[in-house]
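Data availability (excerpt). The following record was deposited with the supplementary files.
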Amino acid sequence: MNGRTDEETIFRKALLISDPAERATYLEQACGEDTDLRSRVVKLLVVDDSHWTGFDNLADFVDEQAEVYSNEPVWPTVENYTIQEEIGQGGMAVVYLAEQSEPFPRTVAIKVQRTNQLGSDSFRRFKAEQRILAKLNHVNIATIYTAGATASGNPYVVMEWVNGLPLISFCNENQLGITDRLKLFKAICDGMEYAHHSGVIHRDLKPANVLVTAAVQGPVPKIIDFGIAKTFDAVENDSGITRESQIMGTLQYMSPEQATGNNRLVNFSSDIFSLGVILHELLIDEIPLASTFKTPCTLENMLKGIREVVPKPVSVTFAGLSDPERVARNHGTTVTALKNELTSELDFILSRMLAKQIGDRYSNIQTLKEDIDHYLAGRPVPKIQVQVQPTRYRQRGVGAACCLILFLCAVVSAIYTGMQESESPTGNGSLASVAPAKTERQNAVSSQVKRELPTLSNGSEGSTNLMNVDSRHDNNKTEPNENDALKIDSPVPVAESGAVISGSTAPVISPRSAESMGMKFKAIPAGTFTMGRGVGAHQVTLTQPFKMGVHEVTQAQYQQLMGENPSSFSGLDHPVDGVTWNDAFLFCLKLSALPEEQAAGNVYRLPTEAEWEYCCRAGNALILGETPPGLADQAWYEGNADDKTHPVGMKKANDFGLYDMYGNVWEWVQDHYGAFPNGPITDPTGPESGEYRVTRGGGWNAYAGLCSPTHRGRFPPTKIRNLYGFRVVLTSEPDVLPETLE
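Predicted structure:
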């Protein structure tokens, strides 16, 4: 038995012994008087037990023995690549700068795994990193080119060489101010949002793992080192690699749930916490709880501090720094100026990112970026605005509840009247004459709608018809009728596409139908398609045709029906924004209760998530990627929207004749958020309950990668943002549709 094999055998047997005393006894017996052998095995055990890439000296433990426990020579042999120099290393791998020969010369980085032992945890983790990197293709994530094995059998990956500096070093050397630092941080968020959308959790975000390189368009951050990342994919998760109670991540940047050692708790929110630590350091050159890590204490006390100690606001921490002048110089400004930029908005953003409880943090990176945008634009962060001005939103909630109560009473009254008519001498004695029979799919959707009513109405009762109530206006105001004076110059003109022409005034006449409000619908045939992407892809069959709104609901239409316009952007022909899911739901109920719609038996509702994606794809199987072809012709998004919404119907319609399925505003859909089924499904309506509702399609603030048929947003149904709007579906029975689309 040679020294290498002996060391590997002892190391693997020691891994199976959990009790420290028993493990020490075994090492004494196995290594005997060979103290060097025992030292090497102990260092391997330290690396295996910790996997804490944040311990910078962890690599030092193994550097001196790297050649001993690896078959790889100092300069590995990689076909088609010439190794030039070593540029980095860690406990599991060494990174080299190299030149590629074929098919064209270019400079690359090659990450070579230290061991070629197939059964080792580090080998399996390295292979998992290869799979993860292969599925990520984003400008702010270092690209993987290829993978293979060296002449000695050690696995490697060839990656984009990022010729840049670590994040903090780049910002300080270039004396970037708060605004420029936040723009860089947003780009990092873009990369991580894409990774999360791909089902990848980094678990080791820190400034050292973000390199910034110069480009024509300015500095570009690149996220690197997905060595301990995990996915939610069944094949690629790390349940077979990461043992229970194994701490994963960098100590100073890890989330409280990572500090518990329970890796089942780690999710996308854990990366948001780590991003918060990075942002804190970007702003004032110091991490939260810095004093905790500087004070000599046990490892358990440090972990306890991560789990329990709430950091001070960043503005307060800056005021208490011993050398604020140095920080100000690194920002190219003065202490006073920097202090003025550390506003309560930044305090709030960071406090939400660094919340100890997962549920108190941002639910996704998109929402985080929205708040940063508000700060950069000089606007109040919406959450702070809600805290300062709760009255409007409370009234909206009360109004919503009242409307639902009254609608329920109207429904009960209608049913009672129908029963009386069916029992009268002139009736046919059957309730079937009151309303046509519903399909199973309509029953499923109707059942879901009924489940929402008790939640919003709080079980209260009322007796007034829904259409006679304007809960958001003066209760003494009388309801206008068709003969009332409008006091406007002209009615709202409608463009050929059905969009309201900008600059006109909304009428105040109570509408009698959706058509009278200028709403248009397209007949959508039944069909089967592949919904979702990647491991979430599954076959969906829609058995019944339906009619989808040609446009997103406009401000004029919403105001005409609901009596108010909550939108932040000016323009009656723009999509309504600033509506919650509950608001959209109420709009559908009230639209269904209009006299002519009731007479026709029409029911308006939000589209199911499956219906929305089916309409967005418009019969195309293409899954759009990061930069959909021709997106600018179809959508108002980050690349062309100029930070605002635009009139509906101004872009090109899709093959179903529907406008703005991408961009303008994110569209609420009917479903609760939940995992997709594993196999084929017919007429899905989503989970029966859940904390979040789904948004689809991207909005004026969304980058190109979010404007896709498959991207899903999830937000509480009470969430108010000037990003959210909706369109509606019309269903009726019987529903006669043409054989071909109009």
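Summary of structural features: Residues 3-50 form one domain.
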